[in-house]
Amino acid sequence: xxxxxxxxxxxxxxxxxxxxxxxxxxxxxxxxxxxxxxxxxxxxxxxxxxxxxxxxxxxxxxxxxxxxxxxxxxxxxxxxxxxxxxxxxxxxxxxxxxxxxxxxxxxxxxxxxxxxxxxxxxxxxxxxxxxxxxxxxxxxxxxxxxxxxxxxxxxxxxxxx
Length: 161
Description:
mainly alpha
């Protein structure tokens, strides 16, 4: 838009009126000159491969301080995260132990039922008859006195033998 003011100058209109004959003589298919067409920008190839960068004495200090800050941040984040992770793992272990306890209680109940079935008097009588065993006679049963040492069991011959 800034060139629009220069494009429609009054002097150009006056000059355009005088050049009508020359414009009619010009080729209708030829384009007019572009703005800044006469300006040439030369670009020189720059080779910086032989230049060595000057060492910055503060760059090493800044680098190590950034590394230290990152490590400190990692330690702080880790120290905040460790308790929650530990609590979550402990919760998993508690739930596993609860499930194991319930499985053991179920197995214990099942074994108690099996033991009761095996020790039932009807089954013991059936096994005794199967193996030709008979019940104890009245003289074969020895009752221990509470005054004697009940921790010892003596093999005493019964009076019948």
